[in-house]
């Protein structure tokens, strides 16, 4: 994952479940929603599973975001190939 993606994940985690804020002020649902809006993938399982360990959470989210970005890239490549197949450049 790019450092920009990693920074986004870290900033979202610190915004919603910062270890320095009171337990009652943490907002895992907000984190799940923000990640979904930014990266378009389901993050509930990753957040729920790793919520109690910040390092594990960051690592798991970075992996999940990387997978989602790779999936998007592959879909884009496939879409471009299909488009070229049906609409070859005129000569």
Structure description:
The chain has 91 residues and is mainly alpha-helical. It has one domain (3-86). It contains four helices and no strands. Helix 1 runs antiparallel to helix 2 (28-39), helix 1 (3-17) crosses helix 4 (54-86) and helix 3 (44-50) runs antiparallel to helix 4 (54-86). The chain is elongated, with a radius of gyration of 17 Å. It starts with a helix and ends in a 5-residue tail after the last helix. The model has no long low-confidence stretch (mean pLDDT 88).
**Could you name the ranges where pLDDT drops below 50 across 5 or more consecutive residues?**
none
Strand-residue proportion:
under 5%
What is the count of helical runs? 4
**What percent of residues adopt helix (DSSP H or I)?**
over 70%
- End-to-end span in angstroms? 39 Å
Structural class: mainly alpha
Q: What distinguishing features does this structure have?
A:
mainly alpha, 91 residues, 74% helix, single chain
List the helices and strands and how they pair.
Blueprint: H1 3-17, H2 28-39, H3 44-50, H4 54-86
Helix pairs in contact: 1-2, 1-4, 3-4
